Write the structure tokens for this entry.
Amino acid sequence: MIASLLDIPTDPPSAAVAYAAAGIRVFRVRPDKAPFANCARCRPPTEKRPNPLYIEHRPEECRCTARTCHGFHAATTDVELVKQWWAEQPDANIGAPCALNGWAVLDIDPRHGGDQSLAVLEQRVGVLPGTVMQLTGGGGLHIVYRTPGVPLPGTLGPGLDVKHNGYILLAPSVHSSGGRYRWSGHGRFLQPPATWPAALTPQQGRRAA
Ligand SMILES: [Zn+2]
Ligand SMILES: [Zn+2]
């Protein structure tokens, strides 16, 4: 965990390296979000595409030397690998798995009523603790907390999703609307100071939705 503000370069290849060097696990996401293909040993066979090379395994147990398989499970802090990935695909966006980086993220999408859902939620549980925030470039907002280390619900209301087992894109990735992701404040990244609110954790005995 770093405690200091991290300046984020404005181009994704350099920014990806900066994140990795700061200990944040990143992986490539194509601009159209089409996943990078798994290697032959990691690609499960389908009816149309048999694959005798496939070795059955769970993504988190992959021992593959390609080191690019299984989407966000390939995320790494290996600066040399990150440099290589973005040299191959300079316009790739920067994905970061949430739980694997110690984060739980509230994803607010006003286009689907997320701001309304947040207002309703805060009426019920009180104003959420302040922490690190990222503007998504599409008018949305990420509120980034430290993970509570327990399973979380996938959504807390319309337009109000929880990114925990999944991933988010990091600044300066480009949103599908054309805008760039940006850290709130001075555009610099800080590890979240606040843990996911207990009031939003089902295991605490309060239903979250
Ligand atoms: Zn593989
Ligand atoms: Zn694999």
Observations:
- The two ends are 31 Å apart (CA to CA).
- The pocket of zinc ion (ligand 1) is lined by residues 38-39, 41-42, 64, 66, 69 (CB under 6 Å).
- Helices lie at 12-21, 79-88, 114-125.
